[in-house]
Amino acid sequence: MYAQATNKILVEVSPVFIPERSNRDLKYYFFAYTVRIENLGNRTCQLLRRHWVIRDGHGHQDHVLGDGVVGEQPLLAPGESFTYTSACPLRTPSGSMRGTFEMIDEAKQTFKVAIPLFFLRGHERDAEQTARC
Q1: pLDDT at residue 123 in the model
Q2: How far is CA 98 from its chain centroid?
């Protein structure tokens, strides 16, 4: 698990490789990740937007921007958490993701929360070959 707290919001991420949804011959590697967001502060906050930076094993980088997560913009009172699972396909058996969530508090102040850098790793043999490229 990867974890980071920013502005009293804790973000934890647990990635997993999904071999049954992957195809080595087609250079398609499928990863799922579960994100848990916990409000450690004393103000109610809402997640407005996400910004993901996704990098494959060759260094190709994609940016994904959008409102909320999995179709929701969760409202977190102090001590509350929200957990969701999403997925990401890559062209290589390894890569990484990181990003930010944009939040707004009850005083209508927006702020960013870091999503920690985490690594996506598929089959070890494929990952070793990609690392040599």
Answers
A1: 66
A2: 6
What's the angle, vertex CA 93, arms to CA 71 and CA 17, rounded to 5?
Answer: 50
pLDDT by 10-residue block (mean), the chain, 133 residues: 97 97 95 98 98 97 97 98 97 97 97 98 56 39
19 to 85, 89, 122: CA distances (angstroms) = 17, 11, 8
> What span, in angstroms and rounded, lies between the C-alpha atoms of 43 and 78?
6
Q: Per residue in 98-124, is it b (16+ CB within 10 Å) or e — as a string?
A: bbbbbbbbeeeeeeebebbebebbbee
| Among candidate residues 66, 6, 13, the one with its CA nearest the CA of residue 35 | 13
Q: Is 52 within 8 Å of 83 (Cβ atoms)?
A: no
